[in-house]
Amino acid sequence: MSKPLTDAATSARLSKQRRRDTKPEIALRRELHRRGLRYFVDRAPVKGMRRRADVVFPRRKLAVYVDGCFWHSCPVHATKPRNNAQWWADKLAANVARDRNTDERLDAEGWTVVRVWEHESAVDAADKVESALRDDDF
């Protein structure tokens, strides 16, 4: 997939997209911390795996991903760019396929994956994480 020609304004806007420490990630982390949960941030759950989780509970083998509605094709809020439409369709489909592959690989290693959307409230997202941690209790 070769890069499409992009106008300067779009290129500048996209270059400012954060890879980590987005507002939804920080809100979730604050809520988890408020609940007394401790975790690692922006870490590969499995050694040698280049895909990093937003929040990781390594002893519990729980990886949390806060997925952006645009980049991960949210069924509620996804948008389809008109410029370079096919390139973007391919790019976003590849992102979703990579997400599913990551989930499968982590599951095969005995990990639990929690995915939340950026539009979910921090409280609801933290509830999902806490629920996964409770379900994992021995």
List the defining traits of the structure above.
four-stranded mixed sheet, 138 residues, alpha+beta, globular, single chain
How are the elements arranged and paired?
Layout: H1 8-15, H2 23-34, E1 40-43, E2 53-57, E3 62-67, H3 85-108, E4 112-117, H4 122-135
Parallel strand pairs: 3-4
Antiparallel strand pairs: 1-2, 2-3
What separation lies between the terminal Cα atoms? 46 Å
Count the E strands. 4
**H/E series, N to C?**
HHEEEHEH
Helix and strand content put the structural class at: alpha+beta
Task: Using the CA coordinates, give the radius of gyration.
Answer: 16 Å
- Strand order in space, largest sheet: 1-2-3-4
Helical content (DSSP H or I, runs of 4+): 40-55%
**Overall pLDDT level:** 91
Which term fits the overall shape? globular
* Percentage beta strand: 15-25%
Segments where pLDDT lies below 50 for 5+ residues? Answer: none
**Major β-sheet profile:** 4 strands, mixed
Distinct helical segment count: 4
Tell me about this structure.
The protein is an alpha+beta fold and 138 residues long. It contains 4 helices and 4 strands, in the order ααβββαβα. Strands 1-2-3-4 form a 4-stranded mixed beta sheet, with helices on both faces. Helix 3 (85-108) links the parallel strand 3 (62-67) and strand 4 (112-117). The longest helix is centred in the C-terminal third of the chain and has 24 residues, at 85-108. The radius of gyration is 16 Å and the shape is globular. The relative contact order is 0.18.
